Automatic annotation (TrEMBL), chain A:
It is a multi-pass membrane protein. The chain crosses the membrane at residues 12-30, 102-124, 145-165, 177-197, 238-264, 284-310. InterPro entries: BPD_transp_1_N, MetI-like, MetI-like_sf. It comes from Rhodobacter calidifons. PANTHER family: DIPEPTIDE TRANSPORT SYSTEM PERMEASE PROTEIN DPPB-RELATED, PEPTIDE ABC TRANSPORTER PERMEASE PROTEIN. Residues 98-303 form the ABC transmembrane type-1 domain. It is found in: Cell membrane. Belongs to the binding-protein-dependent transport system permease family. This is ABC transporter permease.
UniProtKB/TrEMBL annotation, chain B:
Keywords: ATP-binding, Nucleotide-binding, Transport. SUPFAM superfamilies: P-loop containing nucleoside triphosphate hydrolases. The keyword Oxidoreductase does not apply. Belongs to the ABC transporter superfamily. It comes from the Bacteria. It is a peripheral membrane protein. It is found in: Cell inner membrane. GO terms for molecular function: ATP binding. This is ABC transporter ATP-binding protein. Residues 6-261, 278-519 form the ABC transporter domain. NCBIfam families: PRK10419.1. Signal peptide: none annotated.
Length: 318, 544
């Protein structure tokens, strides 16, 4: 087997193992909460007998290990259980919201990642001079603003001063792609502002680190222009650290944007999770927690694999 | 008469220095150097580190490395002034009219790109020719430079070829755009002596065949004597002497040049055989996770108060032998007897006295010292650890040791960054001596130093040996050093000792093949030596 294939398979296996461990932690965490699902359904005033009956019916009296594997088996077959509060199938409820989440995250990523890398390259090219300071200053400002402040600012700007977008990001099935795009414009702008700085600064730092290498001097002595040197000789050697930060930010775009969802009334996974946490709807919390964990693990695994593939020593062994 | 290719007049080069604990200050690296190079000629620039050789060489491209500024004088290349030229003009001439070959091709090739891409990049970027023609040129150069598989080697990545091959690839990269001038900056210094000779011959042939002019920068007079028409000797940024190569090596006019020419003259009388303090018997070792032995059945003995030189190319297992003796790499077979007692194979099983009696000195004195400790703390540490010395008693002993290494008062308060390369190595020697060892392992301790400084270190080591009776296991790849210091010699090749005995026996013919190759590869300060050796080898291989 090609050694790089072995490394990649190893990473994937490790990722799956990690996911399994996380599922156990999530299960244990929910288990450790005071009260249980039966109590949550029946409320404070339930009689002990009623509780006991319901526990029997839900299988809550089985040993935890049995319940864990029953839950895990369900997850693997696409059955996430039913919500306690409204009895809706969780997988179905999540399905559409997950689509919304990914749509918003995807739109933000498509703009933010190339923009951040481009700004990082420009900042590195002019390190220490005004373009660098300007880019660093602006991105640091946007990352320092709390999301909701940035959100209200953007709403004020684009619905009052220049009224071209609606303040509420309502999407529903059947909307055309362009209509959806128009609807999520404002949250996308806010998210781009939030994630830009981190990726841009990592790109800048990684490039500047590589710029110390002797092969950069070789490239300069070939008479290449500064941007060619950066793009052709520095960037290929800075991919691994940049990708790992990009992936962390993508993960944030998927799992961490609940505030933005709330401000814009966007119906997606974060808001769904928060709603059900307040209602103590434990099966939903478990399911969404697992999905979020899977997203994190998957994206970081992807970063690792890209890092491996970007290394010529691993790609082309002696 | 046509104008010269390169004419430098009154060149002044400055930089800002940042000494530790002091405000930055301006330093002048080059004080008004003049230099003229005609088309097709080779000028050797020689001097110790800090002489300004590379700085002057790069000024031919109007390039200042790491914030170095070309502040005065004129640089005329192909008849036009370039010191004050703008960035666009410089980009147009760099790579097209002047190219550069650096000391470390391994660091100068981009690890993420194929060799061919990088070799032809200049041609394509300057629009000198199309891709197909550039590749044809490159393959032709690969062939001329004696690279294996010239058609396909360009498809490889830098890490996939050896150091010597990469250095030839870099030469091909410099010659591909057919420049008027190539700057060779110590192109063979980082190579093994047996590799150096082939690369040197390849470079010389390429220079001759293409008729390109060259600045050849090196600290090794014997090397530059093989390729240069003229030699300029530099010191502290000033020219010491300029002359035809023959005149410089046979009839130097200046004292400093004479010192450089005779630096390899250090002689050392071999001591008679004596009972050993260190016996290594049938040592075999491998690194964890690998499946081949880096040491194969190695047996050597070192008499008390004498020096055993272990010589060989990189990868021959010299340093691994040192690691096994110090206990850092437990051998899989064999035993080590020291001062009559058998040493435990691994470090944990050794007594404090075992540790004290075997000390080490390393190649990079820089990284072997904690930069945040003073010299006094560094030397005082073994005194505290092994002998429990404290306070005034310890300081007194530190001063004694400083006197022994010929460094006066006041050095105890200094930090390593405030010392020169030779002084740093002396401090490391004092630290090793502080433990009152019976054996010091010296791992390439003079390799990173200039010849004259290295000479001083070797003399000091010999004097200390006579005084303290300490034995040295002296690891080196430099045969001149071996001759200068050893009583016994072990020649290593691919993990095995191929020749071993008293110095006089080892260096007297008949030789085995490898020792012969090693000895005949050491450059001699004689014009035409390179051609003789190459011709001799061709004849021998034809005879076989």
């Amino acid at each position: 087997m090609h050694p790089i294939l072995k490394l990649v398979v190893q990473r994937i296996a490790l990722g799956l193992l990690l996911l399994l461990a996380v599922s156990a932690v999530i299960f244990l965490g929910v288990e450790a909460l005071p009260g249980d699902t039966a109590q949550a359904i029946l409320g404070q005033s339930a009689t002990p007998q009623a509780l006991e009956n319901l526990r029997e019916k839900l299988g809550l009296n089985d040993p935890p290990l049995t319940r864990y594997f029953a839950w895990l088996g369900g997850v693997l077959t696409g059955d996430l259980g039913t919500s306690l509060t409204n009895g809706v199938d969780i997988a179905q409820a999540i399905g559409q919201r997950l689509g919304n989440t990914l749509f918003l995250a995807g739109c933000a990523a498509v703009i933010a990642v190339p923009l951040a890398i481009l700004l990082g390259l420009i900042a590195a090219r002019h390190a220490g001079r005004w373009p660098d300071k300007l880019i660093s200053g602006i991105t640091l400002t946007t990352i320092s603003l709390p999301e909701f402040v940035a959100a209200y600012f953007v709403i004020f700007l684009f619905t009052q001063l220049i009224p071209i977008f609606q303040p509420v990001a309502m999407v529903f099935p059947g909307m055309s792609f362009w209509a959806k795009l128009h609807a999520v414009a404002l949250p996308v702008i806010v998210l781009v502002l939030v994630v830009l700085a981190h990726m841009m600064r990592m790109t800048r730092a990684a490039i500047l680190n590589v710029m110390q290498s002797a092969y950069i001097e070789t490239a300069e002595l070939k008479g290449l222009s500064p941007m060619t040197v950066i793009w052709r000789h520095a960037f290929p050697n800075a991919i691994a650290p940049v990708v790992s930060v990009v992936m962390l930010n993508l993960a944030y775009l998927v799992v961490g944007v609940v505030v933005v969802e709330v401000v814009f009334g966007y119906n997606a996974l974060g808001q769904y999770l928060v709603d059900h946490v307040t209602k103590r709807d434990l099966p939903v919390v478990q399911a969404v927690g697992l999905i979020f964990a899977a997203v994190y693990i998957f994206l970081n695994m992807l970063a690792d694999i890209i890092g491996i593939l970007a290394n010529p020593r691993l790609r082309h062994p002696k | 008469m046509a104008e010269p290719l390169l004419q430098i007049r009154g060149l002044v080069i400055e930089a800002t220095s940042y000494p530790p604990g002091e405000p930055p200050r301006e330093v002048t690296l080059v004080h008004g150097v003049d230099l003229t190079l005609e088309r097709g000629r080779v000028l050797g620039l020689i001097g110790e580190s800090g002489a300004g050789k590379s700085t002057i060489g790069l000024s031919a491209m109007a390039y200042g490395r790491g914030g170095v500024r070309l502040t005065g004088g004129t640089i005329h290349l192909n008849g036009r002034e370039i010191r004050l030229a703008d960035a666009r003009t410089l980009r147009a001439l760099r790579g097209r009219e002047v190219t550069y070959v650096s000391q470390s091709a391994a660091a100068s090739f981009n690890p993420a790109r194929q060799i061919m891409e990088q070799v032809i990049e200049t041609c394509l970027n300057h629009g000198l020719c199309g891709k197909a023609e550039a590749e044809a040129r490159a393959v032709g150069l690969f062939r001329k430079l004696g690279l294996p598989n010239p058609e396909t080697i360009g498809l490889r990545y830098p890490h996939q070829v050896s150091g010597g091959q990469l250095q030839r690839c870099m030469t091909a990269m410099a010659l591909c755009p057919k420049p008027d001038l190539v700057i060779f900056d110590e192109p063979t210094t980082a190579l093994d002596v047996t590799t150096q000779i082939d690369v040197l011959a390849a470079i010389k042939e390429a220079i001759r065949d293409t008729g390109v002019a060259a600045l050849y920068i090196t600290h090794d007079l014997a090397v530059v004597a093989q390729v240069a028409d003229e030699i300029m000797v530099l010191r502290h940024g000033r020219m010491v002497e300029l002359g035809e190569t023959g005149q410089i090596i046979h009839a130097p006019r200046e004292d400093y040049t004479r010192a450089l020419v005779s630096v390899r003259g250090l002689e050392h009388e071999e001591k008679p055989p004596a009972p050993p303090v260190l016996q290594v018997q049938n040592l075999t070792a491998r690194y964890r996770g690998t499946n081949f032995d880096v040491l194969k059945n190695v047996s050597v003995e070192l008499p008390a108060g004498q020096t055993l030189a272990v010589v060989g190319e990189s990868g021959s297992g010299k340093s691994t032998l040192a690691r096994a003796i110090t206990g850092l790499l437990p051998p899989s077979q064999g035993r080590i007897t020291f001062a009559g007692r058998q040493l435990s194979a691994d470090l944990a099983g050794r007594t404090k006295d075992d540790l004290r009696e075997i000390q080490m000195i390393y190649q990079m004195a820089d990284t072997a010292m904690n930069p945040r400790q003073t010299v006094g703390t560094i030397i005082g540490r073994p005194l505290e650890f092994y002998f429990g010395l404290r306070g005034a008693e310890r300081d007194r002993r530190v001063q004694e040791l400083l006197d022994q290494i010929e460094m006066g008062k006041g050095f105890a308060q200094r930090y390593p960054a405030e010392l020169s390369g030779g002084q740093k190595q002396r401090v490391c020697i004092a630290r090793a001596l502080a433990a009152k060892p019976r054996l010091i392992i010296c791992d390439e301790v003079t390799s990173a130093l200039d010849p004259l400084v290295a000479d001083g270190i070797l003399k000091l080591l010999l004097a200390l040996q006579a005084e303290a009776g300490v034995a040295y296991l002296f690891i080196t790849h430099d045969l001149a050093t071996v001759k200068a210091i050893s009583d016994k010699i072990a020649v290593m090749f691919k993990g095995a000792v191929v020749r071993y005995g008293q110095k006089s026996d080892v260096l007297t013919p008949p030789f085995d093949d490898y020792t012969d190759l090693l000895l005949s590869s050491v450059p001699e300060m004689e014009q035409g030596w390179l051609e003789q050796v190459i011709a001799h080898r061709k004849m021998e291989s034809a005879g076989n």
